[in-house]
Amino acid sequence: MKYLSKALLAAGLSLGIALSAGQAMAQAQAKPPTPAAIAAAKEILELKRANTIYASAVPNIVQRTMDTLMQTNLNYQKDLKEVAEVVVKNLAGREKEIGDGMAKIYAQDFTEQELKDLVTFYKTPLGQKLLNEEPKAIASSMQYMNQWAQTFAEEVNGQFRAEMRKRGKAI
């Protein structure tokens, strides 16, 4: 029995190592995205108005940092506010790094042709409608899911209480 479990453990370890090596080789063999693929991905992100998601990233992070520093340095509030303005100016535009990173991710996950096809699609009337309506549909879906979860949680709570009452335990 000991021999069998050791053999299974060894086989499992060997399989894990082989899979890890295979995955590493596949990643090493993956071609970096072409400049054209990255350009198409950037165009898609532009069409999707993705920059609105991260446009205020720099000032928001500066504000959070300043707020954190103020909690332990109350006597430096005026200075920290002035420094925050300087830091925001110094780092202005850095949020574009987020867009560049997102474009590279898209370009790794989709082929150059797929990205070009998506650009073409997003420029069609249906693609434009999708770009305009999808955020509303997602927001409405999230609202529905939250309402459903609340109602369902109340039902689950009711069933817990009913089952506990059957056991003579009021909660």
Would you kindly provide a brief summary of this structure?
The protein is mainly α. It has a domain at 125-171. It is 83% helix and 0% strand.
SSE topology:
Blueprint: H1 2-29, H2 35-47, H3 51-54, H4 57-72, H5 77-90, H6 96-109, H7 112-122, H8 125-166
Helix pairs in contact: 2-6, 2-7, 4-5
Care to describe what's here?
The protein has a domain at 125-171. The protein contains eight helices and no strands. It has helices spanning 2-29, 35-47, 51-54, 57-72, 77-90, 96-109, 112-122, 125-166. Helix 2 packs parallel to helix 7 (112-122). The protein starts with a helix and ends in a 5-residue tail after the last helix. Residues 3-15 and 17-21 have low confidence and may be disordered. This is DUF2059 domain-containing protein. Keywords: Signal.
Number of strands: 0
Strand-pairing-aware structural class: mainly alpha
Q: Give the topology string: H per helix, E per strand.
A: HHHHHHHH
What low-confidence regions span 5 or more consecutive residues with pLDDT below 50?
3-15, 17-21
As a whole number of angstroms, the C-alpha radius of gyration is 27 Å
Oligomerization category of the chains in this entry = single chain
